[in-house]
Amino acid sequence: MPAPERTTTEQVVAAARALVEAGGTDALTMQAVAARVGVRAPSLYKRVSSREHLLGLVVDGAVRELAAVLDDAAAREPDPRRRIVTLADALRQHAHAHPRLFGLLFAPPSAGTPPPRATPTRDALEAASDAVVRTCAELVGPDHALDAARTVTAWAYGFLTMELSGAFQLGGDPAGAFLYGAEAVARAVATLGR
Question: Fewer CB under 10 Å: which end of the chain, C or N?
Answer without folding.
Answer: N
